[in-house]
Structure formats: structure tokens, C-alpha cells
Amino acid sequence: MVGSALVRAFKKQESEHELLLVSRGELDLLNQSAVTEFIRTEKPDIIINAAAKVGGIHANNTYPAEFIHQNLLINTNLIHAAWENEVDRVLNLGSSCIYPRACEQPIKEEYLLTGPLEKTNEAYALAKIAGLEMCRHYRNQYGVLYHSAMPTNLYGPGDNYHGENSHVLPALIRRFHEAREAGADEVMIWGTGKPRRELMHVDDLASGVLFLLEMDQPPDWVNLGTGIDHSILEIANLVKNITGFKGVITHDFDKPDGMPVKRLDVSLINSLGWKSHIPLEDGIQTAYEDFLAGLGSGTTRL
């Protein structure tokens, strides 16, 4: 999802950059020797690390070993091979889940490592923190321009709509769509619906990445988000309206809520000159249209 959005953004900008694009089948980022050989051969000037093993609460709770192992390998393989082969710049994409569970809201960059992490995504968060810290220490020790951006929760074209392992918004889109198609009377959401989440369209993220690449001395890491959050129930009602579902929303109180509030403080990136611009309702509408188009063509990730 993120990689495709970055490609769209570069092409829309008519950038002079030559994009080096390979699929997961062509380059296994978990294979250190393969990553090193690719970078040595292709000699990129810039690497954007948009790769990760990702998922929602269920996936993070069920597969924590895979989440920490695979994400650590991706980060260490790319960052160290970049330095070994004299890559000038690495922009590493992390996640807002790196911040402590109980930190003040909105979440400032300096809150990193000031308290315990949310247990439901601890393994993933630790791997992402390691990637951020690798970039920071390589920059400090070797003088290379390796830096990171911490996006909020993302959604948009190319999202994963898996029934169990997807994030909250794509899971809701699929659930409400299938309920409408089946003529169901209700859609059940996990937990109380009270936790609040900040959601950003992936095309906004791409514009933020291109903005950071234009900076000569970007921060070691910076939050990328909208600065606006909504409750899960509010998000569910937006999806309900957009998909045309006419039934009621019920709750499965046996399922976890996850982190109660998670909204990024985006004052730093805003002060540097960048802001998100896609409203949530408009973004969900385009995401749903992409979901339907993918169903028609057989390309939706289910």
C-alpha cells in the first residue's frame, strides 16, 4: 500500500528520480546477502524503507515472534547494507505504535522510550524503534543522512482486507460491505468502540515523504499525521454510511480495545511546512471505491 502510494506520488510530481522497483518475489528483504547484493549492484542514491510485516490487534497478538523477527531483519538488513555500500540517504518509515501506551496526548516525538509500550503490539513496536535508533546512531557516528518518519494509522488504495489480520478501517470496510451484500441486520465491532484513532490516507503520507526528501537536514525522526482522531464507533458509523449498510452496530466486549487513545502531535512537521489534506470521510469514500474496483478485477487483498 505505502510503496504503491510513493510510486504514484513520484510519477505525479514528474520527479527526475529513477525508481528502482522490485517485488517481494524478486528481493527477499529477510535475506541479508540478497539485500546487500541488490544495493551493491543497483547503487541507489536514496532508499525509502516502506517495508514491514503489519497487521491489526489480532495479528499482533497471535504472531508476535514473526512480527519482531521479520521487522528487525528488514530494518537491519536495509540500513546496514545501505551504509556498507555508501548510500547517501535512507528515509525509514516507522509507526505511531512506537510510543508508550500511557503517554500524554497528542504524542510528541520526545515521548519515545518514556514508558511501557501497548502490549498488543509490543513486538512490532520494538522492531520499529530499533530501526529508528539504527538510523539515528548511524547518522551520528558516520555522518550519513539516515532519518525516520513515524506515520499514524494509514489506509487507502492497496490496503489489506484480510478477515482477521487487517487493520481497523479495512476490516470495517469489508465487514460492512459483506453485511450489506448479505442483507444482515447487524455488524459487530470489537470492544467498546471508545478507543480513539488517528487515520491518514496513504497518499497524504506519500506527500509527506516527498516533502522530507527535499530537506537538507530533516529531524532524526518526525511524526506524520493529521492531528485529528475519532473513536472507533465514529469511524464505524462513517463506514456504515459510505457502504450503505442499513442495520445496527453491536459490540463484542470480549475482544480487546487496544491502546485507548493514539493521536500524534504534528506541530513539528507542520512548522516545517507540511500538512495532510485529505479529510477522513473523503478518504474512506475513495478507499471503498478502490475496494469495490479490486473485487471486480480480483485484485483486492482478502
Percent strand: 5-15%
Kindly state the mean pLDDT as a whole number? 94
The total number of structural domains is 1
Rg, rounded, reads 19 Å
- Regarding quaternary structure, how should these chains be classified? single chain
Please report the number of helical segments: 10
Shape: globular
Per CATH, the superfamily is NAD(P)-binding Rossmann-like Domain
Polypeptide structure, described:
- This protein has helices spanning 2-12, 32-42, 57-62, 64-84, 122-142, 168-182, 202-213, 232-243, 267-272, 280-297; strands at residues 46-49, 89-93, 145-151, 153-155, 186-190, 196-197, 199-201, 221-224, 230-231, 248-252, 261-262.
- With 302 residues, the chain is α/β, with parallel strands linked by helices.
- It has one domain (2-297): Rossmann fold (3-Layer(aba) Sandwich), CATH 3.40.50.720.
SSE topology sketch:
Layout: H1 2-12, H2 32-42, E1 46-49, H3 57-62, H4 64-84, E2 89-93, H5 122-142, E3 145-151, E4 153-155, H6 168-182, E5 186-190, E6 196-197, E7 199-201, H7 202-213, E8 221-224, E9 230-231, H8 232-243, E10 248-252, E11 261-262, H9 267-272, H10 280-297
Parallel strand pairs: 1-2, 2-3, 3-8, 4-7, 5-10, 6-11
Antiparallel strand pairs: 6-9
